[in-house]
Prior knowledge:
By secondary structure, the chain is mainly α. It has helices at residues 13-24, 37-50, 64-74, 83-90.
Amino acid sequence: xxxxxxxxxxxSRQQFAxxxxxxxxxxxxxxxxxxxxxxxxxxVLYVLHRGCPxxxxxxxxPKWYTVYAYWQIWNAASNTDSLLQQALKKIDWRxxxxxxxxxxQPHRLIADAQSAPHAxxxxxxxxxxxxKSPAS
Length: 136
C-alpha cells in the first residue's frame, strides 16, 4: 500500500480505533474487507473539511465512488443521528497543544470592519463596482 500525504482533516489511528466498531456495524457482508476503513473515513473527512466534489479526492485515498458509497451508508437517516454523526461526536477534536479541560470551541470572533460591511448602515441601493459610494 502506498503512503499518502497527511491532511489537516485526518484523525489519528488511535482516535479511529474508538469509532471503528461503530462504523463497521453498518456492514452486513461477511466477506473480508479489501481496503483500509481508516483511509475511507479520512477521505470522507477530507471532503467534508474541504467542501470539494467527490471526484476531486487526491491520489492516495481510495477511489471516489468507494468513498461515496461508504458515506451514503454511514450518513443514512435513522430515527436518531446517523452513524457518521455519532462517529464525529465521539472523536476528541482537541489538538496536541490543547490541554485537557479547555474548551475546544472558539468563543470570540473578530471581524475586520473594512472587509465586513455594517448591517445597520447598509443601503438597499447596493454598490457600484469600483466606486466607494452607493449607486445613484
